[in-house]
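in:
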């Protein structure tokens, strides 16, 4: 039996900043008073606006209540995280597994403080769990832990932050998938832990066992940036090339086929002559930000999430049309491998494309689109974006 209690959900959990997913939610200089905005479904209070309701879909951006001086945001299955300028973290939305980190399992539609945390420099929301990087290079995690995705050596859920154990060095970046996580060490090594049913831990085999202690991923070079989809992993090497592993059922690894799983790192095709800066993944698609400010996409495209003007699956990367001077990308999950939405920051503004069934594109209305369209927010300049399950966050 597949070890997926959250079938057909979620996230790459993922933050995208100008520095790329290789440094998810790394603190960036922001204006005093910078806030977070959200759009899409609010069925579990994941927009952080104080209300909850299945019918409450918001197709345009609304302001997340409370937190100001927000440095970065991250969206999970149905919860959100905000990193504040003072190094503390706010959380809101669903909390049935303790993913809000306040010592309870009480869901909350207004942001509250994560307990016992300070000195945070990066945040990553997984499916039903949360992960943060501290200034000293160590990690804390909390929430759902069925597959060992908290990395604390157990499979017990945690309602308060606990240390991730067994990391052999200082961490410089983090990324969270559905029920697994990645850490990039300062020496360029990638560590992975949690669910490995689809080989997303990169250990050469796929299995249904929990892996609650980090394992090293064998890669041919040092890594500069990491990203995750719901069930696949991505890593940018020092030469700017890309490797991926895990689920490949819709071509989300970009290797020219749909042979799945791929439990060992394989090279993404079609990127010769370009340098990848950062990456992110949804359920069945992936995005890459190039050094020239353009974006490539591949995998499932049934709802236009690749932004190439078609709805045809692409097994190798294709250009996202009309985008230049992009500084960040983020891929959302929309409940199945076929569906997805995508976000990017260009010239300080947000654009979005793909499925829009719940207003997750933030472009007004609920019509999906296979071309990037502008999102109107109240932010003077956007520096962080994240796609969750049918909702999006920006700050």
């Amino acid at each position: 039996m597949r070890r997926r209690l959250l079938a057909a959900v979620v996230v790459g959990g993922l933050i995208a900043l100008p520095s790329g997913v290789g440094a998810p939610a790394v603190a960036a200089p922001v204006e005093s008073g910078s806030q977070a905005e959200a759009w899409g479904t609010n069925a579990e209070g994941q927009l952080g606006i104080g209300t909850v309701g299945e019918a409450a879909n918001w197709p345009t951006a609304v302001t997340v209540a409370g937190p100001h001086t927000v440095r970065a945001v991250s969206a999970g299955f149905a919860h959100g995280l905000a990193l504040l300028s003072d190094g503390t973290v706010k959380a809101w939305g669903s909390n049935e597994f303790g993913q809000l980190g306040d010592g309870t399992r009480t869901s909350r539609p207004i942001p509250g403080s994560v307990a016992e945390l300070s000195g945070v420099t990066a945040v990553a929301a997984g499916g039903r769990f949360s992960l943060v990087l501290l200034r000293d290079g160590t990690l804390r995690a909390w929430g759902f832990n069925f597959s060992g995705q908290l990395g604390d050596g157990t499979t017990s859920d945690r309602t308060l932050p606990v240390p991730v154990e067994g990391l052999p060095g200082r961490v410089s970046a983090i990324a969270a998938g559905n029920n697994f996580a990645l850490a990039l060490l300062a020496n360029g090594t990638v560590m992975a832990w949690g669910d490995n049913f689809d080989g997303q831990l990169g250990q050469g085999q796929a299995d249904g066992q929990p892996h609650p202690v980090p394992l090293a991923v064998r890669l041919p070079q040092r890594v500069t940036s990491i990203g995750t989809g719901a069930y696949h992993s991505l890593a940018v090497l020092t030469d700017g090339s890309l490797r991926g592993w895990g689920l490949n059922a819709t071509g989300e690894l970009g290797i020219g086929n749909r042979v799945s799983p791929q439990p060992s790192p394989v090279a993404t095709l079609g990127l010769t002559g370009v340098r990848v800066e950062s990456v992110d993944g949804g359920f069945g698609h992936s995005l890459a930000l190039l050094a020239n400010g353009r974006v490539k996409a591949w995998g499932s495209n049934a709802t236009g999430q690749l932004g190439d003007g078609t709805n045809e699956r692409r097994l190798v990367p294709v250009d996202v049309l009309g985008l230049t001077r992009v500084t960040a990308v983020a891929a959302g999950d929309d409940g199945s491998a076929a569906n997805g939405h995508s976000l990017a920051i260009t010239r300080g503004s947000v654009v979005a494309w793909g499925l829009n069934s719940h207003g997750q594109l933030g472009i007004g209305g609920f019509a999906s689109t296979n071309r990037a369209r502008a999102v109107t927010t109240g932010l003077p300049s956007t520096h962080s974006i994240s796609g969750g399950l049918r909702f999006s966050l920006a700050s």
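note: DSSP finds no helices and 28 strands in the chain.
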